[in-house]
Specification:
Distance between the termini: 70 Å
Number of domains: 4
Strand order of the largest sheet: 5-4-1-6-7
Strand content: 15-25%
CATH superfamily of the largest domain: Ribonuclease H-like superfamily/Ribonuclease H
Number of helices: 11
CATH architecture of the largest domain: 2-Layer Sandwich
Oligomer: single chain
Order of helices and strands: HHHHHHEEEEEHEHEHHHEEEEEEE
Structural class: alpha+beta
Radius of gyration: 31 Å
Shape: elongated
């Protein structure tokens, strides 16, 4: 304090202020601060001041503290940033995010989150992220639970870009035809996405089939939808969808709820009330828009301009020059396109998906998922 008083007295007379600051080993900014204090408060202004913040959690009123804790208890798995945004929407101006964090930490209502990183590639796995609504939809079945003697295993469909939950439906079973009916209603409401990402389980994929095709995924391709798949044993490839399932487990399954009404209420709250940090604290409903690519029903068959078409029979095979080539039972009743690329070598296409190659000299079909360097994509059939 004596040095500061001495500095203040010299600062009133010196002509070279920066040289004086260098003499006392302080920056010019600090020197001007001390000079201003000396002019304003005299000797008392040079005393050491408390470093305690001007505003902190303890200064919130009891009503504000209770409201923050009440919102957290109502949304137990939301972080401080989401709780603050919800508080702001309901009550206007609020304290800082760090203040909310301190309040929740002192109440023992926060925990650290672990992050996992995806790595590598797999069959039909591109690793790309959605850049606009309806670019990629993600789909899965939430693990089942039983409540009041009833089994509940809801189908979940989500728009990756906006985080909007498109479907949260407790189906009577998980068969492909049942899931298809649910998607038909969904497509009628929201239109078609550019791609659908799923895991490798039924009814979305068949782990041993050609490119994992099932009758359901074949139908998607026939509608012009690209297929995206996570790698087997890598749930982080669809990590945000799995994270949503964790919220369902904590906020619906843990309460023993299983009725469709409870699922609808939770979906409505998730879409229209819950702010997301990745969306700039907007809600999914504020970002999502229905697709411009409308659903017009299932086509009778697919056309292949400038290609030779062959219909897949009930055995999953096509006939070409008295030889039969097995493709997949899932393609039964649909036509595939054959495109010559070299003498006695043909590409086999189904819609926008390259299935493999027919080598007529050896009379065999080579699957595209066995030759990963030949898995090129055909131009998209449906553009938004």
């Amino acid at each position: 304090m004596e040095q500061r008083i001495e500095f203040g007295l010299k600062a009133m007379k010196t002509l070279n202020f920066r040289a004086l600051c260098q003499e006392y080993g302080i920056s010019a900014k600090t020197g001007y601060k001390w000079k201003e204090r000396f002019l304003r408060d005299g000797f008392g202004g040079m005393a050491e001041r408390s470093r305690r913040p001007h505003a902190h959690a303890a200064q919130l009123s009891e009503e504000e503290l209770c409201e923050i804790v009440r919102l957290k208890l109502a949304h137990a798995h939301w972080g401080p940033r989401k709780i603050r945004e919800l508080y702001r929407r309901r009550h206007g101006e609020v304290a800082s995010e760090s203040t909310f964090k301190r309040v929740l930490e002192r109440a023992g209502l926060t925990q650290k989150r672990q992050r996992r990183r995806a790595q590598g590639t797999g069959r039909l796995w591109s690793g790309r992220e959605a850049t606009y609504p309806n670019d990629i939809w993600t789909v899965d079945f939430k693990g089942w639970w039983r409540s009041r003697g009833r089994r509940c295993e809801p189908l979940t469909v989500r728009d990756e870009h906006s985080r909007y939950i498109l479907e949260l439906r407790a189906l009577e079973d998980a068969r492909g035809q049942t899931v298809r009916r649910s998607f038909e209603r969904l497509f009628e409401r929201q239109g078609l996405p550019q791609a659908i990402r799923s895991d490798n389980g039924a009814p979305f994929a068949c782990i041993h089939g050609l490119l994992g095709l099932t009758r359901l995924s074949v139908w998607w391709v026939a509608l012009g939808i690209n297929l995206e798949r996570g790698r087997p044993g890598h749930p982080q490839d669809n990590g945000a969808h799995e994270r949503m399932h964790l919220d369902i487990s904590r906020e619906i399954e843990a309460l023993g709820e299983s009725g469709q009404e409870s699922l609808d209420l939770w979906r409505e709250s998730f879409n229209r009330e819950r702010p997301h940090e990745s969306l700039g604290l907007k809600t999914p409903a504020e970002v999502y828009r229905a697709s411009a690519c409308k659903y017009e029903g299932t086509p009778q068959d697919l056309d292949y301009p400038q290609m030779c078409a062959r219909r897949v029979d009930c055995c999953g095979t096509i006939k070409l020059d008295r030889h039969r080539y097995f493709l997949s039972h899932a393609l039964e009743g649909w036509s595939v396109g054959l495109k010559p690329i070299a003498p006695e070598l043909l590409e086999v296409w189904f819609g926008q998906l390259l299935l493999g190659h027919i080598d007529q000299s050896a009379s065999n079909f080579v699957r595209a998922d066995i030759c990963p360097n030949k898995t090129a994509k055909h131009p998209k059939m449906c553009k938004q």
